[in-house]
UniProtKB/TrEMBL annotation:
It is an enzyme of class 2 (transferase). The lineage of its organism: Bacteria, Pseudomonadati, Bacteroidota, Sphingobacteriia, Sphingobacteriales. This is histidine kinase. InterPro entries: BphY/WalK/GraS-like, HATPase_C_sf, HATPase_dom, His_kinase_dom, HisK_dim/P_dom, HisK_dim/P_sf, Sig_transdc_His_kin-like_C. One of its GO terms (molecular function) is phosphorelay sensor kinase activity. SUPFAM superfamilies: ATPase domain of HSP90 chaperone/DNA topoisomerase II/histidine kinase, Homodimeric domain of signal transducing histidine kinase.
């Protein structure tokens, strides 16, 4: 069958639509007004049965060719069920109006086919049928109701596409997270062994050979950087699966900052860490995780500024928050970069070219801080430097 038009059957309004569309199609095929009316009435009667009893279906209008003859054909289909028996009124009425009415059922679908032969006098042929099809398409909706219906089904199609895209994106994301987690675990073990042996070799050498000590120190330091990256990868997979656990405890900021400053300075040996007297304030924090945040922000301050430059660490109480500020006099950031730096894997175009990194640190850092009920903000001037403000709620 060459399909000329289709109507989904959902409610009473669709009966009128099916009727009108059959009338118009029959007219274009050159059928007389009385034939148009009889056929269209039969179509809408069957449609009524389908809407009432099968709770909807589809009416397809088209033309079929059989042994050199052409037929105007309507196939009204719905899900198979015990809907239509011999005494079905609408079907019996339709049977009286059209020469051929057949009911065929498969396991899933029930098709009611209505057919009438198109007289040769109309000069019907396959080419004419194609022209009718094009004309119907060109005419578009024949009523405001059909227009709304078409728009709705287009919206539904777009929604379905979006849902599918979302499902596959989620699936890919899950796969990626799983891969990250496996890769990070696999890297972690040999790295730890490597570092332990480097440390052991340094101890055994005990400074006897300067050259060897230098080389072992380099191995130790560089493998330390890889360990930090692997830790970030593990953190990302933990954050994605939502199983990051915090061991929070009441923490005096003044004491804590004094404890970690030395380690922070060791992490940025080529920069000068300047700290103003820490404020005496209590927070509820997972100390290891908060140190990790500071390590990251201070590490970035060093990475994105010149060697020997100062990095300022200060703290104060603002409203109900402890605010820890880290300021550098480095390359700074554009407004666009400032907007995006906390996104996963984000790196600004200019840093990609000049600095190594994976764009994970600030994403993980900001998640840790928000998991503590706080947030990180940034102010930055390109070419002059940046200040990261870490806000953590005070322990009341
Ligand atoms: P990475 O440093 O590995 O690229 P981060 O998540 O730590 O990843 O940082 C994301 C991006 O934010 C960096 O690529 C850089 O463009 C920008 N950035 C972060 N800190 C600074 C800073 N102190 N100065 C300038 N740019 C920074």
């Amino acid at each position: 069958m060459t399909t000329l038009t289709q109507i989904t059957l959902e409610n009473e309004m669709d009966l009128i639509l099916a009727y009108k569309k059959s009338m118009r199609t029959a007219e274009l095929l050159g059928l007389t007004l009385s034939t148009q009316t009889a056929f269209s009435t039969a179509v809408s009667e069957v449609c009524r049965e389908v809407i009432d009893k099968a709770e909807g279906g589809m009416a397809t209008l088209g033309a079929t060719a059989d042994e050199g003859r052409f037929f105007f054909t309507a196939v009204i289909s719905c899900r198979t069920g015990e809907y239509f028996n011999r005494s079905s009124e609408g079907i019996e009425y339709a049977r009286k109006l059209v020469p051929i009415l057949e009911i065929a059922a498969t396991e899933e679908k029930l098709n009611i086919t209505l057919k009438l032969s198109i007289p040769r006098s109309t000069r019907i042929d396959q080419r004419r049928i194609s022209v009718v099809k094009a004309e119907i398409e060109q005419e578009g909706p024949i009523s405001a109701y059909e227009e709304v219906k078409m728009r709705n089904s287009e919206l539904q199609r777009i929604n379905q596409q979006k849902e599918l895209a979302l499902l596959s994106a989620n699936y890919l994301n899950e796969q990626k997270t799983e891969f990250l987690s496996i890769a990070a675990h696999e890297l972690n073990t040999p790295l730890t062994v490597l570092r332990s042996y480097a440390e052991l070799a340094m101890r055994m050498d005990n400074g006897q050979s300067d050259k060897l000590t230098q080389m072992l120190t380099k191995i130790f330091r560089q493998s330390g950087k890889v360990v930090a990256l692997v830790k970030q990868l593990l953190d990302i997979s933990k954050l994605e699966t939502g199983i990051i656990e915090y061991d929070k405890e009441p923490t005096n900021w003044k004491v804590f900052q004094e404890q970690i400053m030395e380690d922070l300075q060791l992490a940025v040996p080529n920069h000068n860490l300047v700290s103003s007297a820490p404020v005496d304030a209590a927070i509820f924090a997972d100390r290891i995780r908060i140190e990790q945040v500071l390590n990251n922000v201070v590490g970035n301050a060093a990475k994105y500024s010149a060697r020997q430059a100062d990095i300022q660490v200060s703290s104060m109480v603002e409203d109900n928050d402890l605010v820890i500020s880290v300021t550098d006099k480095g390359i700074g950031m554009s407004a666009q970069t400032v907007k995006n730096i906390f996104q996963k894997f984000y790196r600004s175009d200019d840093t990609i070219k000049k600095y190594s990194g994976l764009g994970m640190g600030l994403y993980v850092a900001s998640r840790i801080v928000t998991d503590h009920g706080g947030n990180i903000t940034v102010t930055s001037v390109e070419g002059e430097g940046s200040t990261f403000n870490i806000h953590l709620p005070l322990l009341n």
